[in-house]
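Exercise: predict the fold of this chain.
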Amino acid sequence: RIFRIWGPYAAALALAVAGNVYLSTGGLPEANRWFNSTWLLPVHPEDVLAHLTLVGVFDDKLFNTAFWSLIHEMRVSLFYPLLVVALRRLPPASLWLLPAPVLCLGVALSDHNPAGRWWESLEVLGIFLAGAALARNRESLTTWFRQLSTPRRAALLAAAFALYTFGWAWNLPAYVLHLSSGFRDLFICAGAVGIVFTALAWPPAHSLLDLRPARWLGKVSYSLYLTHATVLFALVYLGRPLFWLYLAAALLTAALFAELIELPALRLGRRLTLPNPQELPPPEPHRAPDQQRHQ
């Protein structure tokens, strides 16, 4: 797991730090607050070392705005295998009782004690648990789904997309009712579960995702996650913030990064941790955190 996540992350961190050193001018007056929270300050070795820990407490916006979610994934992944052993002892249907309370508890605790964003990792654990519940109940849910008519299947998928896309609309009632805006992640998670489940259970959706372009995007998704923000900031500082140029540059960078960094890291991890790695199929690239959480 460390080789799958941390190795490519360290290389992406080096790329982002290089951009901060050689391209940044210390922020842009015409840019918004979000943009100027990254590549704003000179690089200090202690900040780089803090980032390399990945699970510690540091300003995760300094070099790459996407690294924040990877911190939580790495924290959860350190003990998740032990949790899976415990979850396997529970009835599959009972697993659906866990994600929402754990996610909401993480949100509530984060609001009262935001230091280090540790409680956000508990919230992310709730999303992991939703994935575990979906995996354990996949066969029974698939049987139920395939008994539905096509219009109902389409309605279910549309509802899932609506929850995933417009879950941010919770911010308005949260403001009026003085509740945490973080509870929006409960709706986003439910939408993501619906989308993933539909893709697994509905042959037309499965066939669409099995097309070569979709499979290629899945192959480079982690590399794209790690490098897309660095590409964006580099193009803006170079004065070339054109959308199509950014899209092409981000995909090209992800393809090169996957081939030169991510896949070699996976192969090295297999050689060091498996007795006979040559007997196993080629390694599957790691899926990006935003793919696991929202996609």
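Check your answer against the key: Residues 75 and 161 are 28 Å apart (CA to CA).
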